[in-house]
Each structure stands twice: as structure tokens, then as C-alpha cells.
Design goal:
Elements (H helix, E strand, L loop, with lengths): L1 E2 L5 H5 L3 H20 L5 H7 L4 H4 L1 H24 L1 H21 L3 H11 L5 H12 L2 H32 L4 H20 L5 E2 L6 H24 L4 H23 L7 H4 L2 H29 L12 H6 L2 H21 L2 H20 L3 H29 L5 H28 L10 H24 L3 H23 L1
Antiparallel strand pairs: 1-2
Helix pairs in contact: 2-8, 2-9, 2-10, 5-6, 5-7, 5-8, 5-11, 5-19, 6-7, 6-8, 6-10, 8-9, 8-19, 9-16, 9-18, 11-12, 11-19, 14-17, 14-18, 14-19, 14-20, 16-17, 16-18, 17-18, 17-20, 18-19, 19-20
Length: 487
């Protein structure tokens, strides 16, 4: 670990923590909004852009892919060259992509714009690193919890806001509004966020970055297109096999590199892999809720179980989720300080599971609202704790890449959850083309099973003392390796 020339720890401590946290929250909110805001709008975009269902799906998939690829690389660059510098670049990319998306009227250009917006995926790991560097120690857990919770808050809020925007304005405003927020956040980051004095020496392992990007793209394309291509098709299976081979090559290349993009020793830490396992499984549940609840309540009443809600009305069913995440995320941060981050993770995993149990048997509006609130409380606690668990488990110089990988794993879980749900619902249809009530029961039950595995993963996370001891051991090994190379 090194201190950058021209910066000092005293300068860092002189920053205004509340202002820094507010700027980071603003940027994170814009990214999270853009992730989910287009989901309810896909049918409108398909009509207005004169394209197919599979074609318009790339408006969402391209954003997901770009964010997954850039997140760990940008986290590493931030650790090496300065988190503020890379954060401003990420926010600028998010703003530029939003401007292009707001102006274009063709599908290819919109996909390009969404890919550029994906640069914003770097915001979260960089924000966690800045919080660790700039905030007083007693405020770090709460700050990380708040920013981490924005992924859930923004995801729910995006689906809530999409209906009114589409009803009263054109789809272009789905991008104009986040553009305004992102522009303010970018300027504020330049003005108010100090550059971190902490640096992780080394260089970017570009082969590792290329292989990481390749296996992530192969995996997410296979997952995203599995329903359209069919899960047993040669293309789908081929991409899954290719992803596995590329992932194995990536692990081998990173293990042999002197300066890996992602330290495999770090990924094997018990505090890291168990938290990532919980993130994968909880991501499955959270994103499934964002897709399934609006779709469930939009089902026509003629089916005998649906509520016939409009796009706007269906978004309102997720208001309890959004409010619950907003309230419980900072509470989760306080719990992390008081009793350790494992407790809110376990509590959040259990509550999210109970929420899906309620959904599996729900037959009235109040049961849907109750389930949505339980999922929000659970996600608020769990997401608030996961980033803190990663930060506590790794040395400061690996905060960016470690939290970046955790964000990616969460995203992969969400992508798998959404596609599994689409596959199950599509296999059980009524005469009018709507899914049967039994299909939803099966889907919610699958989520319950996955989330129960998430509870077990949360229970397997080691305590704070063990995580910190592992982090010190990893740091000592890295220092010893650096000393040997210097000699």
C-alpha cells in the first residue's frame, strides 16, 4: 500500500464525510435507476422501435454485460490510480450513454447507448473504496450499507416510476431524468470528493481482464437468451461450456500473474467466497421479485387469480419494497457496528425467504404488499451487510476489485433468477397465453428453495475476528511477495 504524491491522510480526514456520502449516493441512485427503469418499458420500446421481443431484450442485456465487464477492472484501476479519477470517468460514461439513449430512435444505437451506460457499473466498488478511505471509521459500515442498499432501492424505484413516465411522457424521458441526476453527481464528484491518498502498486493484468470479460459475456448471453433459444439448444449449451472453459483459463492466468486483476487467494478467503455465495442466491431472489410481482398483479382478473393492474398500478405494489430497503439499509449498517455484519445478513436472508413463502400462497392484495415489504426488509439488511463483509475481509488495496466481484455475482444471480422465472412461467400457460396460477406457485417455491440455500451460505460466513485475521494474512503475503520482487 502506498500514499500518492501530493495527498496526505490529513487531507483525506479533512473532507466532509456527509457531503462525500451524498455525492456517492446520488451517482449510485442514477445507475440503479437505469438498471431497472427500462424493464417495464420493453414492450413500449419494442413497438416504438419496430423490433422483436428478443431484439429489444438487448436494451437490458447490453447494460448488464457492460456493467459486469467494467466493474472489476475499474475497481482495480481505482485502487491503482485513484478512486475519484476513475469514479468521474464512470459517471461521465453513464451521463454520455444516457444522453445518447435519450436522443436516438433506432434499436442498434440504443443498444450502443446502453452499453456506454454500463460504465456506471464501476460506481459501486469505487464508492465503497472511497467510503473506506474518507469516512471516519465509525461511519464506514453505515455509509457502505446506505450505498449498497441503493442497488435495491433504485431497482424497485425504477419499476415504480416507469409507469407514470411512460403514461405521461415518451420513453426518451426514461433517460433524460437519470441524465440530469448523473450530470449533477459528476460535477459534485469533481468538486467535493477528495482524491484518495491510498494506492495499490502494480499493473493491470490485461489478459486476466480479457478472459474475465469473455467468460462473463458468454455466461450472461447464454442466461439472457436461454428462454428464446431454448435451454437445450446447441447455442445455449455451447456458450455455457465456453464460459466454463474461459473461466478456468482466467483462474489459471490470474493465479500465475505477479499482479493479478483478481487475486485468487483473496477469492478463496472464507469471508469472501461465502459472502459471494450469499450474494448470488439473494440476487436470484431480489431480481425475481422485481420481475414477478408486477407481472403477477398485471394478470387479467379473467384468469381467476390476477388483479388486472396497469403498468403504473403494478409498480405501486413494489413501493413497500423500496421504502423498506430505504429504512432498513442504514439500520443494517448500525447493526454491523454493534453486532457484526453477519447478523444482518442472516436476518435479511431469512426475511427475504419468508417474503417468498407468502408470495407462494398469496391470494389477496394485502398479502402481496406484505410479501413485498418482507422482501424489502430482507434485501435492505442483506445488501447492507454484504459489502461490509467484503470490506472487512480484504486488505484496503483490494477493496475495489473485491466489492466489484461481489456486485457482479449479485447481478449474475439476478439474471439467472429472472430467466428461470420466465422459463417456468412460459411452460405453463392458459388458453389466453397467460401463465397459470400453478406456474407462479412453482416459481415462487423455486425462489424459496434458492433463498434457503442463501440462508445456509449466510450462516457459513465467518465471524469478524476470523475475517480480519484472514485479511492480515493476505496483506502480509502480498507484502512479502513485493519485498522479494524488489530484492
Amino acid at each position: 500500500m502506498q500514499v500518492a504524491h501530493g495527498a496526505s491522510p490529513q487531507a483525506a480526514s479533512a473532507s466532509r464525510p456527509g457531503l462525500v456520502l451524498g455525492v456517492l449516493a446520488l451517482g449510485g441512485s442514477a445507475y440503479a435507476l437505469l438498471q431497472s427503469l427500462v424493464v417495464p418499458a420493453l414492450p413500449v420500446l419494442q413497438h416504438d422501435l419496430h423490433t422483436s421481443t428478443s431484439g429489444v431484450a438487448w436494451v437490458f442485456t447490453s447494460y448488464l454485460l457492460a456493467a459486469s465487464v467494467v466493474t472489476p477492472i475499474a475497481g482495480r484501476l481505482g485502487d491503482m490510480f485513484g478512486k475519484k479519477r476513475v469514479l468521474v470517468i464512470a459517471l461521465s460514461g453513464l451521463a454520455a450513454g444516457s444522453l445518447l439513449a435519450a436522443l436516438v430512435t433506432s434499436l442498434p444505437l440504443l443498444i450502443v447507448a446502453r452499453t456506454i451506460q454500463g460504465l456506471g457499473g464501476a460506481i459501486f466498488p469505487l464508492a465503497f473504496g472511497i467510503i473506506r478511505d474518507e469516512l471516519p471509521r465509525e461511519r464506514v459500515a453505515g455509509g457502505i450499507a446506505l450505498v449498497s442498499g441503493l442497488l435495491g432501492i433504485g431497482g424497485g424505484l425504477g419499476i415504480v416510476l416507469a409507469g407514470p413516465i411512460l403514461q405521461h411522457l415518451s420513453y426518451h424521458w426514461l433517460f433524460w431524468i437519470p441524465l440530469a441526476v448523473t450530470t449533477v453527481a459528476t460535477v459534485a464528484a469533481v468538486v467535493f470528493i477528495p482524491e484518495s491518498p491510498l494506492r495499490a502498486p502494480g499493473s493491470v493484468h490485461w489478459l486476466g481482464g480479457l478472459l474475465l470479460s469473455a467468460w462473463l459475456v458468454a455466461l450472461l448471453v447464454a442466461v439472457s437468451e436461454g428462454t428464446t433459444w431454448h435451454w437445450g439448444s446447441a447455442k445455449t449449451i455451447g456458450l455455457f461450456v465456453l464460459s466454463g472453459l474461459l473461466a478456468a483459463a482466467w483462474v489459471k492466468a490470474e493465479s500465475r500473474s505477479r499482479h493479478p486483476l483478481v487475486d485468487m487467494k483473496m477469492m478463496r478467503l472464507s469471508g469472501v467466497w461465502t459472502t459471494n455465495a450469499a450474494a448470488l442466491l439473494l440476487g436470484f431472489g431480489m431480481y425475481s421479485a422485481f420481475v414477478l410481482i408486477p407481472q403477477f398483479v398485471q394478470t387479467p382478473t379473467s384468469t381467476g387469480y390476477g388483479f388486472g393492474a396497469s403498468v403504473t398500478q403494478s409498480g405501486l405494489f413494489l413501493v413497500p419494497t423500496t421504502i423498506a430497503i430505504l429504512i432498513t439499509s442504514p439500520i443494517g449498517g448500525r447493526l454491523s457496528n454493534l453486532v457484526g455484519s453477519k447478523v444482518p445478513l442472516v436476518l435479511g436472508s431469512i426475511l427475504t425467504t419468508i417474503g417468498f413463502v407468502v408470495l407462494a400462497v398469496a391470494g389477496s392484495r394485502w398479502e402481496i404488499y406484505l410479501a413485498a415489504a418482507l422482501v424489502g426488509i430482507g434485501v435492505g439488511f442483506a445488501f447492507a451487510s454484504m459489502a461490509n463483509l467484503i470490506v472487512e475481509a480484504v486488505p484496503p488495496g483490494q477493496t475495489g476489485v473485491a466489492t466489484g466481484m461481489n456486485t457482479i455475482v449479485r447481478t449474475i444471480g439476478g439474471a439467472i433468477g429472472a430467466e428461470v422465472a420466465a422459463t417456468v412461467l412460459g411452460a405453463h400457460l392458459l388458453a389466453n397465453g397467460e401463465p397459470t396460477k400453478h406456474a407462479y406457485t412453482i416459481t415462487f417455491s423455486i425462489c424459496v428453495a434458492v433463498l434457503l440455500a442463501g440462508v445456509l451460505a449466510a450462516l457459513a460466513v465467518p465471524g469478524r475476528t476470523r475475517r480480519q485475521a484472514d485479511s492480515r494474512t493476505l496483506l502480509e503475503r502480498a507484502s512479502a511477495r513485493t519485498s522479494r520482487e524488489a530484492a
